Amino acid sequence: MNAQLDSAPLNQTLLARFSARLGPQLSLRLTLLILASLLIIPMLHLLPADSPLHVSAYILTLVGKILCYAIVALALDLVWGYAGLLSLGHGLFFALGGYAMGMYLMRESAGDGLPEFMTFLSWTELPWYWYGTSSFLWAMCLVVLAPGLLALVFGFFAFRSRIKGVYFSIMTQALTFAGMLLFFRNETGFGGNNGFTNFRSLLGFDITAPGTRALLFCATIALLSGSLLLSWKLARSKFGRVLTALRDAENRLMFCGYDPRGYKLFIWVLSAVLCGLAGALYVPLVGIINPSEMSPTNSIEAAVWVALGGRGTLIGPLLGAGMVNGMKSWFTVAFPEYWLFFLGALFILVTLYLPKGLLGILKKGDPK
Amino acid sequence: MRSAPLPEVFIDPNSDAGTSRDAVGLGRRARRGLDARHGTILTLEDISVSFDGFKALNNLNLYIGVGELRCIIGPNGAGKTTMMDVITGKTRPDSGQAFFGDTLDLTRMSEVQIAQSGIGRKFQKPTVFEALSVFENLELALKTDKSVWASLRAKLSGAQKDRIDEVLQTIRLDSSRERPAGLLSHGQKQFLEIGMLLVQEPQMLLLDEPVAGMTDAETEFTAELFKSLVPQHSLMVVEHDMGFVGSIADHVTVLHQGSVLAEGSLDAVQSNERVIEVYLGR
Q: pTM score, two decimals?
């Protein structure tokens, strides 16, 4: 009897150790393998159109788009799942990265003249913030700087004032809404409600050519894998453990001598930059960016991906983004009017019955 | 660091050294960190705190010596937790002075600065990082560079691992080191939090009801543990369990309505008429 009692915690410890060491490692490798296997899609896309194995541009763009969303889900998981900061404004950072890329694409297609929408507004000169955007390198800097700096300034003040929980979420939501209203205006200089479209070339390559699309797709896979590995490293480092501690008991952490502001700011800015990069890949792939990307519903949908897949698991959100968007593309064709009802029902069901998300079911045996 | 001998330079050449605030200010500039040469580790003078007109602390004066183990008792609402909040920077006093050592002005430091300067606190409700394992809880509390950059590159050294193992033995949680802290029993969480304080290596420990929810054996063990911490550390223990207070404290302070009602040995305090009145009468 006594021996049995003694062995129970030991078994649990062994199990915990086993799953802590092997389980996540295995699922990371598996995910990376799946991502690598997706590289077959651009290759098949390059086959001649009459080949039976040819993958259409529609499928390639769709999967590429979902992969970009997966990066957003991953970035959101870093701040929500680990640091406990639920952002309902990540669409803004995504769109800012997209707009920065779009500026370059517009300049490239306009040649020496002004972008089309500016001549339409009978502007004669580029606004100051458009200077240098004809250089791809500067545009890439903007892709990082625009979301990064905005996140830095917003985060600095929000974390300094110790804004947390639902107040933080509401502020991020308001931020993306304000961004949307601003970008809807023609005077802002970003094409108003039409946004940017009719891109022609990227670094001199035809943007609709199969080769360019295939390369963009590969770049997305590379970014997603890179972000996953980076997030993985972060989550396994002491930094990641401090974030988890911050989420669960911020006061305790402060009395241990950690300043939470720096930790929050770091992960917040990193997350925003990842979103910006994802947006920059999304725009040439999809061929359009407009202010509706900043609409609050987009950001909320991103939170649904993360919740569905499983917060704080890194891999779960990728799964969630893939599943929801996969279903969305099927549903909006088959029963377009029911999609939002379905999404809402899904969210309610997940919140009620799967608080740890889909990955929570898989990990049920894990005592952790 | 605190055991390093004080260099001659820091002995203030001013004739009024130690007699005015200016001299104290000079000392602060000359040497960061704790300086308790005058034998008092914590000084609270005329501290008042009010919440919406309610005076939680009312001209509180309290001095704790280096290496002292002081117990604070008092009825509910006497201001014990508010006092700890003032010391740790969670609440700012409306008036009064709070010094850690001779030089560190606690009323001007943030919670984080106060924690880093060497005051550790155990909460009334045991607070540990529930999602992390027992070992990881101690790892985070361990005294080390706690900046973002340091944490990104941090790797435990052999000596640090040994220190954590040692504390795990001390708090008797060695067999649950890999367990998530959220699965521990109430008493075990109390011990884990005490262990986190130990690895943090503060000069002064504030302990808010450390033995609540512990068995008699655990309480006894905690008493031994606390007694072994002095005189290297200074302890301030808030506790309701008089048996526990009697077993550890040589010096007891009674708080009542935000100020000190009585101070002295436990026997003297318990036979004090005003204390009896507050606890039993009314």
A: 0.85
Query: Which of 3.40.50.300, 3.40.50.720, 3.20.20.70, 1.20.1060.10 is the CATH number of B32-280?
Result: 3.40.50.300
Q: Are A113 and A106 in contact (CB under 8 A)?
A: no
Evaluated on CA atoms B30, B36, B40, B41, the torsion sign reads positive
Closest CA to A191 of A282, A274, A280, A293: A293
- The CA-to-CA distance between both ends of chain B, in Å, stands at 50
Query: Sheet holding B69-73: strands in order across?
Result: B119-122, B204-208, B234-238, B69-73, B251-256, B259-264
Q: Which of A45-49, A277-281, B2-6, B46-50 has the highest mean pLDDT?
A: A277-281
ipTM of this predicted structure: 0.80
Q: Do B140 and A245 touch (CB under 8 A)?
A: yes
Cα–Cα distance measured from residue A319 to residue A342, given in angstroms and rounded to the nearest whole number: 18
Query: How far, in Å, CA of B152 to CA of A236, rounded?
Result: 10
**Contact yes or no for A252 and B151 at CB 8 A:** no
Q: Using CB atoms, pick whichever of B88, B131, B178 lies closest to residue A17.
A: B178
Query: pLDDT for A313-355, tens place per residue?
Result: 888 899 999 999 999 988 888 888 888 888 888 888 888 888 8
Please tell me which residue, A87 or A37, carries the higher pLDDT value: A87
For B148, the enclosing helix (H) or strand (E) is: helix B148-153
Q: Where are the domains of chain A?
A: 57-294
The nearest alpha carbon in chain A to B89 belongs to A255
Question: Measured between beta carbons, which residues in chain A are less than 8 angstroms from residue B200?
Answer: 256-257
Contacts of B140 in chain A (CB under 8 A): 238, 241-242, 245, 253, 256, 258
Can you spell out the DSSP letters for B213-235?
A: T--HHHHHHHHHHHHHHTTTSEE
| CA–CA min distance B223, chain A (Å) | 23
Q: Do B129 and A16 touch (CB under 8 A)?
A: no
Higher pLDDT, A5 or B208: B208
Q: What pLDDT shows up at residue B30?
A: 40
Burial tier of A367 (Cβ tally within 10 Å: 0-12, 13-18, 19+):
middle
Neighbours of B78 (CB within 10 A): 23
Number of Cβ within a 10 Å radius of residue A127? 12
Cα angle A150-A223-A72, degrees, rounded to a multiple of 5: 50
Closest CA to B125 of A247, A249, A83: A249
Spell out the residues 6+ positions from residue B54 whose beta carbon is closer than 8 angstroms to its own.
Answer: none
Domain boundaries, chain B: 32-280
Q: Among A84-88, B29-33, B249-253, which range has the highest average pLDDT?
A: A84-88
Q: What is the pLDDT of residue B18?
A: 41
pLDDT digits (tens, 9 = 90+) for A251-288: 899 999 999 999 999 999 999 999 999 999 999 999 99
Query: Is the N-terminal amide bond of A42 cis, ω within 30° of 0?
Result: no
**Residue B1 pLDDT:** 42
Q: What is the pLDDT of residue A92?
A: 96
